[in-house]
Amino acid sequence: ATATNISSCPRLIWHQVNNPSKLRHPDYYLSLKFNEGNEQEDIMTNIIESNISGAMVAERNVKTLEGYIGRHRVRCRPDGLLYDPDNDKNLMPVIEFKSMDESNFLRFMNRGIKESHPYYYDQLQVTMHVSRSHFNRVSIPYGILFAKLRGSEVDVWDEEVEYDRGYIDTLEEILDERDLMLGSSEPPERPTASNSTNCLNCSGFNACWSPDNVQVGKKKVDWEDSIVKLLKSLGNEWLSIDDQEGDLKARKQDIRRVLEAL
Q1: Beta-carbon neighbour count of residue 246 at 10 Å?
Q2: 5 phi and psi angles, rounded to 5 deg
Q3: pTM (2 decimals)?
Q4: What is the number of alpha carbons within 13 Å of residue 2 lying toward its C-beta?
Q5: 163 contacts: CB under 8 Å, gap ≥ 6
Q6: Concatenated DSSP letters for 99-115?
Q7: d(C-alpha 205, C-alpha 230), whole Å
Q8: Which residues of the chain have pLDDT under 70?
Q9: 3-class SS at 13?
Q10: Which of 130, 9, 15 is nearest to 62 (CA)?
Q11: Residue 154 Cα distances to 113, 150, 210, angstroms
């Protein structure tokens, strides 16, 4: 397992292990987003080191680390360790960089990472857990998720997350259940509907929702009818987003004024 996929859809993970040929390869747009994310990490490093006197983001090019959660081998790659001269010299929290669009950025600001993006929370906990054994000459009592609004050079937000050993034990139970699931000849139930954002953007969409794989009980679902329902649902969602856009812009302006006043 990796730090980034512990919270992934169980059905997708089953297909990755048992049915990889049916998965959709990442498209060019997703590749561009990944490359943009790497560029954003350099920008965020510069923001930190320019705004905190004497600060340094160390271990930026560290290779993938391996560790264990119980009997499960896990892998992670921290984006860096933060050295802040105002802290004890042996205290260097793990730092994770994320580039977010406006809706995700506002959700992170308003709700905190554990509620807004639980998969990032899991990633940070696992990365801290593994890093504590690899970088044992320093103390890593917490991590920092540092987010930047995509397309902006000034809108940034960060949150400190304490290392939680009890939460790691919870993730161990999830990994135990995953082992049982992966040994099954059939994938687990679909956790969401086909028109959910998670499904539409998933590499396993075709494996889950192609006509040969969609059944309700013993009766095949009418694929054309499913497409019509999907289009109607997306149209309604589009209109709902339009209605909320004005409120989000107003909220963004309020947040910007507060940040500028600090």
Answers
A1: 9
A2: -115, 5
A3: 0.72
A4: 9
A5: 125, 128, 129, 132, 140, 141, 142, 143
A6: EE-HHHHHHHHHH-HHH
A7: 13
A8: 1, 25-38, 194-195, 211-236, 238-239, 242-243, 246-247, 258-262
A9: helix
A10: 130
A11: 20, 10, 43
